[in-house]
Amino acid sequence: MGATKSDLFTKQQNDIANMAKALAHPARIAILQYLVKKNACVCGDLVEELGLAQATTSQHLKELKIAGLIQGTIEGASVCYCINPKVWNQYHKILGTFFTEVQDIKSCC
Amino acid sequence: MGATKSDLFTKQQNDIANMAKALAHPARIAILQYLVKKNACVCGDLVEELGLAQATTSQHLKELKIAGLIQGTIEGASVCYCINPKVWNQYHKILGTFFTEVQDIKSCC
DNA sequence: AAGACTAATCGTAATATTGCGATACGATAA
DNA sequence: TTATCGTATCGCAATATTACGATTAGTCTT
Fold first, then answer.
1. Among the residues of A1-109, which ranges form H helices?
2. Shortest CA–C1' contact from A78: which nucleotide?
3. Would you give the end-to-end CA distance of chain A in angstroms?
4. Chain B residues within an 8 Å CB radius of A39
5. Cβ contacts (< 8 Å) between B24 and chain A: which residues?
6. How confident is the model at residue A107 (pLDDT cuts 50, 70, 90)?
7. Is B83 an 8 Å CB contact of chain A?
8. What is the mean pLDDT of residues B21-40?
9. Position B35 in a domain
10. Is A4 within a domain?
């Protein structure tokens, strides 16, 4: 075992979990924050920014791309990344909804 | 290797990543939604609700407890769980802030 | 005390993630 | 063309996560 039994859960539950998984590494948070801070296409300087090896950085970028949170465009020799605002807002909305389900929670125990 | 190099990143980045990690499994999402839906102490019936083995369910509950999102009280023979509203709202706020950092994002690529 | 029930923990196996060196691949520069 | 630069991918090793049977520990009932 070790594989998540995703068939036991609803699509919505799997979706939320997968979104969380995309955010579940500080390097990916750092990448996203950096792209947000720049608020523009960022070409090339992500490896130096993170302090991880080039291969590792590339892998995190790939996961963020698969999650849809970022998009990359080939710009001559290098690649430019930026936030995908549409998916970003989707994440914001879905995770926000998940949390606002409990606005008036009772602390019972 | 295989261990996250958390020393490379800020406390805030590690915190967000750890929050996301707590949510990064559909079973834990299901547990939280169930507790939210009931909006009360839930004693015992979580194992049947999930469809996972008792040991597995207990492990997910433990992780949610470590993350602070839920709290359990021993109620006679069984244990009652409910949302910890304080931590829940913290999660809501911190993740919400993370996403609102990019309200007016430019889609450049 | 003995049995039944609930939940936590232990031990283990399967799978996933993280990290990086090496390599490959495409674009630009010489 | 050849060299160089930037990035993606491959292959591997280390660690983490997920899942569950078995056991343990506690409470309640009889």
1. 11-23, 26-38, 46-50, 54-67, 85-100
2. D6
3. 34
4. 102, 105-106
5. 17-18, 20-21, 24
6. low
7. yes
8. 94
9. yes
10. no
Identify the closest residue of chain A to B43 by CA–CA distance.
Answer: A109
| B93 part of a folded domain | yes
Across-strand partners of B72?
A: B81
Please report whether residue B42 resides in a domain.
yes
Shortest distance between the Cα of A77 and any Cα of chain B, in A, equals 15
CB A87 within 8 A of CB B102: no
Verify if strand C has an atom below 7 Å from the CB of A3.
Answer: yes
pLDDT at B6: 94
What is the count of structural domains for chain A?
A: 1
Q: How far is CA B106 from CA A43, A78, A79, B98, in A?
A: 15, 20, 17, 17
Residues 43-102 of A with CB under 7 A from strand C: 52-56, 59-60, 63, 74, 76-77
Tokens found for residue B81: 């769980």
* CATH code assigned at B87: 1.10.10.10
